[in-house]
Design goal:
216 residues, alpha+beta, 2 domains, three-stranded antiparallel sheet, 6 helices
């Protein structure tokens, strides 16, 4: 396993086919660390890693660029598979009549304008970060808009990359259990004699000793 301590911006990450891949020695510990790191905010990660705000922004832009690349691939592939065909030609896609796949395609195309609920008291969109749909249906990133919004709201990027439960008080710890909870902001009254209040969402639950909790 190769460990890159300080990668260069133009580091060649092309996979090496002539090298035999190996498995990590401590997969469980690595998974635990990934789970803990995934719950940290952008500011917390920046402080923990001791990197500058500019480098943190650059890393997140790279992550967003990878996401947009994958999103464009899925849109193009599903568009090809569900193509209705042109008159007089035998070029109909193999999934042209598949309503489920067409539904996925519509969801992908609406992703830039679909709200990301549950992040504190504001509704976020991918478009806030400069992600936009072009006239040809492809998705792109306006890097200037991304830099402006990220600089003003660095922790907001967590709504895209992390799964977290947050409360409206620094004195309160919010936690998640289960895996099928629904994102959003929930308000409730805590019992005056109970130390913990619980919100049930689908098959999961969130607990917090506060009256407002957000899942994202």
């Amino acid at each position: 396993m190769l460990i890159v301590v300080s990668p260069a911006k133009k580091l060649d990450m092309t996979p090496r086919e002539d090298l035999e891949q190996s498995q990590p020695i401590f997969p469980e510990q690595a998974a635990d660390l990934a789970q803990v790191a995934g719950a940290l905010s952008q500011a917390q990660l920046q402080k923990l890693m001791g990197i500058s705000e500019k480098l943190a922004q650059l890393n997140q832009l790279a992550n967003l660029t990878d996401f947009v690349t994958d999103l464009n691939f899925m849109i193009n592939k599903l568009t090809e598979l569900t193509y209705r065909g042109s008159p007089g030609s035998d070029d109909t896609g193999p999934l042209a009549d598949d309503t489920l796949v067409k539904g996925y395609l519509r969801s992908f195309k609406r992703m830039t304008t679909t709200p990301l609920p549950g992040f504190q008291d504001q509704t976020l969109y991918l478009s806030n970060f400069g992600v936009m749909t072009e006239l040809d249906g492809s998705v792109s990133i306006n890097e200037t808009k991304f830099e402006e919004f990220f600089t003003a709201n660095p922790d907001a990027f967590s709504a895209i990359t992390n799964t977290r439960a947050v409360s409206d008080s620094n004195l309160v710890q919010a936690e998640l259990s289960g895996s099928l909870w629904k994102t959003g902001t929930y308000e409730f009254d805590k019992s005056p004699v109970a130390a913990v209040a619980e919100v049930q969402t689908s098959s999961g639950a969130a607990t917090a000793s506060a009256h407002t909790v957000g899942f994202f």
